[in-house]
């Protein structure tokens, strides 16, 4: 039966490939491979795309032109292990302006991944050196009938400039060379807080870096009750999980900072041992999950070989020396990963028969969840799965002392849902670095919760909140020449309206002739309290009399308001309520069958109280 994917095998060389060729069709990545249309030969023209992945962390095994502007791309599997194909990182140049293409990645090994939930590839160019995600409407993940029902990742892209080199990747790349440069900068920036040491070498003789951050004063005498606490961080076991390196970078930067109060407290009390890249060969080669010999290091902790897993052996040796030391106590071993199927940040933990150890094991994940707005507690798992016995999480909890909390910290390759909302946000490099800082803050809360570090008093907290005068943002003061004179306005006397204070102009009642009713007014008291009940007063000043008589004939001196006093109703008699009382029934009487007798006594007492209350 004809297999349309037979030509995709990375282990079959084509007839036209030379023996020393490591380009398309071989075991390595494509190296400056130009794809020409059928029947075209000679010098490449603009628009004949040139693919390249022969650089650090690069991964692209083959590129085929299947249409006028459509290309099938085949990922190179991990070295010596064809099972894993997910990470990709390649460049494209020799493009034509406004050229539109469709790239189909046809041999992804894991069908259930975040491409179903909105993960999109990253792209940047040589002149625009910032990673940007391709819009979701241009990315498709589906079963392709043209590729024998395999899942295919297709994305459309338009090259807007000719003189640029475009780079595409699954996630933000973090290479071995970038780590070396970064550590050299930190050595010069924080010489007192930062110590760099080579723990060993990989199979291809790359350094296994060990970072130690602490300012702990070592005790002169060994005190079993006052041991130095140690936290061990491991990252980049799987080369394709580059977000783990950014998380470690955020943690290192936070702990090494000189002026931050949290990092200062942690350095003075805790020793941090950080291995930022435990699989440097796999990272350099652009593998997805394995080292150079095709072994998954996160399944090899329970059967370490000095030849196949030298980095694991060096790490385990360091941990055993710390665990057997009389001065140190390991509290945490955290293995940082990136997840390609779930969103957010979450932790995998263990289960224990000892209830107290299990409760202590749950403390740090809860504290980290409170610190991180991107934490996804619904994805957390705590188990003792025998199939994961070769992982760092399961191996260290069984082979190190009971004081060790061993976790796997996962962060999504895609993004996270903001807490209590349905808003989905894609991770950036800063987002991963922020997670590393939050890890350090959660460590401080953990040691305060377990009474290893003292909780600061309110005065100390208020003192830390005070800012120095130099840091205060003073308001802008305008100079004298900036003041503008106030414009002059015309002033005139306001009209005064005279009202008869003895007349209620807003009353609904009126006299027989339509004039408002007058009320006696006392200026010494509040008017609203001294308006007596309505009483109609008919005199010469009523509206009808004023209309019928001449105004100059009115006698103002004889006007006196006569008010009849309304009799006040006698105060109603209210009976004083009975005083509350508490009736206690003897339980012994009830048990002897005297319930009716006890009830009659209570009723009699109530009647006596009512009679007395009347008098």
Cα(first) to Cα(last) distance is 114 Å
The CATH superfamily of the domain at 176-450 turns out to be: Zn peptidases
The amount of beta strand, in percent, is: 15-25%
The number of E-state strands comes to 21
Explain how this protein is built.
The protein has 615 residues and is of the alpha+beta class. Among the domains are: 33-169, Immunoglobulin-like, CATH 2.60.40; 176-450, Zn peptidases (Aminopeptidase, 3-Layer(aba) Sandwich). It has 14 helices and 21 strands. It has helices spanning 176-189, 243-256, 261-269, 280-285, 310-323, 355-361, 363-371, 392-399, 429-449, 458-465, 527-530, 543-548, 587-591, 595-614; strands spanning 33-34, 50-52, 62-65, 70-74, 89-93, 99-105, 122-125, 132-133, 139-144, 150-159, 166-169, 194-201, 207-213, 228-235, 270-275, 328-339, 345-350, 381-383, 405-412, 415-417, 424-426. The strands form 4 sheets. The protein has an 8-stranded mixed β-sheet, with helices on both faces. A hairpin with a 5-residue loop joins strand 12 and strand 13 (207-213). Helix 7 (363-371) packs across helix 9. The longest helix is centred in the last third of the chain and has 21 residues, at 429-449. It is globular, with a radius of gyration of 43 Å. Residues 172-447 form the Peptidase M14 domain. It holds the Pfam family Peptidase_M14.
């Amino acid at each position: 039966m004809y297999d349309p994917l037979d030509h995709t095998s990375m282990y079959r060389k084509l007839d036209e490939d030379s023996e020393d060729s490591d380009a398309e069709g071989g075991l390595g990545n494509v190296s400056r491979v130009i794809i020409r249309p059928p029947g075209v030969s000679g010098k490449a023209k603009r628009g004949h795309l040139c693919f390249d992945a022969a650089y650090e962390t690069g991964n692209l095994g083959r590129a085929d032109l299947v249409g006028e502007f459509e290309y099938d791309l085949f990922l190179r599997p991990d070295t010596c292990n064809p099972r894993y194909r997910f990470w990709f990182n390649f460049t494209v140049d020799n493009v034509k302006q406004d050229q539109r293409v469709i790239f189909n990645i046809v041999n992804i090994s894991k069908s259930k991944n975040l491409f179903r939930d909105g993960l999109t590839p990253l792209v940047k160019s040589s002149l625009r050196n910032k990673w940007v995600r391709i819009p979701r409407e241009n990315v498709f993940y589906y079963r392709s009938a043209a590729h024998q029902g395999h899942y295919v990742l297709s994305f459309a892209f338009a090259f807007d400039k000719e003189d640029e080199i475009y780079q595409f990747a699954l996630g933000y790349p973090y290479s071995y060379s970038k780590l070396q440069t970064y550590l050299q900068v930190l050595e010069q920036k924080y010489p007192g807080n930062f110590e760099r040491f080579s723990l060993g070498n990989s199979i291809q003789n790359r350094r296994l870096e060990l970072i130690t951050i602490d300012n702990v004063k070592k005790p002169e005498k060994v005190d079993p009750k006052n041991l130095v606490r140690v936290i061990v961080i491991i990252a980049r076991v799987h080369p394709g999980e580059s977000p783990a390196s950014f998380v470690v970078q955020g943690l290192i930067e936070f702990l090494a900072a000189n002026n931050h109060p949290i990092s200062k407290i942690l350095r003075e009390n805790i020793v941090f041992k950080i291995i930022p890249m435990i699989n440097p060969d796999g990272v350099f080669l652009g593998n997805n999950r394995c080292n150079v010999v095709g072994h998954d290091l996160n399944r090899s902790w329970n059967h370490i070989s000095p030849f196949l897993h030298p980095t694991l052996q060096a790490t385990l040796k360091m941990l055993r020396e710390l665990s057997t030391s009389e001065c140190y106590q390991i509290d945490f071993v955290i293995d940082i990963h990136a997840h390609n199927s779930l969103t957010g940040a979450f932790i995998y933990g263990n289960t224990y028969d000892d209830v107290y150890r299990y409760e202590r094991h749950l403390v740090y994940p809860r504290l980290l969840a409170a610190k991180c707005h991107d934490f996804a507690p619904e994805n957390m798992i705590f188990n003792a799965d025998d199939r994961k016995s070769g992982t760092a999480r399961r191996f260290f909890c069984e082979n190190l002392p009971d004081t060790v909390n061993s976790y796997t910290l996962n962060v999504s390759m895609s993004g996270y849902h903001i807490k209590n909302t349905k808003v989905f946000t894609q991770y950036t490099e800063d987002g991963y670095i922020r997670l590393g800082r939050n890890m350090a803050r959660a460590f401080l809360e953990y040691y305060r919760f377990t009474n290893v570090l003292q909780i600061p008093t309110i005065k100390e907290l208020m003192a830390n909140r005070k800012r120095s005068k130099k840091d205060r943002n003073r308001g802008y003061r305008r100079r004298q020449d900036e003041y503008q004179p106030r414009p002059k306005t015309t002033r005139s006397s306001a009209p005064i309206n005279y009202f008869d204070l003895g007349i209620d102009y807003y009353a609904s009642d009126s006299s027989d002739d339509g004039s408002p009713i007058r009320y006696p007014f006392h200026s010494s008291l509040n008017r609203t309290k001294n308006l007596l009940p309505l009483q109609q007063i008919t005199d010469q000043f009523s509206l009808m009399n004023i209309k019928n008589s001449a105004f100059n004939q009115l006698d103002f001196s004889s006007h006196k308001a006569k008010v009849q006093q309304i009799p006040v109703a006698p105060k109603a008699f209210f009976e004083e309520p009975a005083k509350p009382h508490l009736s206690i029934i003897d339980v012994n009487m009830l048990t002897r069958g005297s319930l009716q007798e006890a009830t009659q006594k209570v009723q009699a007492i109530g009647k006596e109280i009512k009679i007395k209350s009347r008098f």
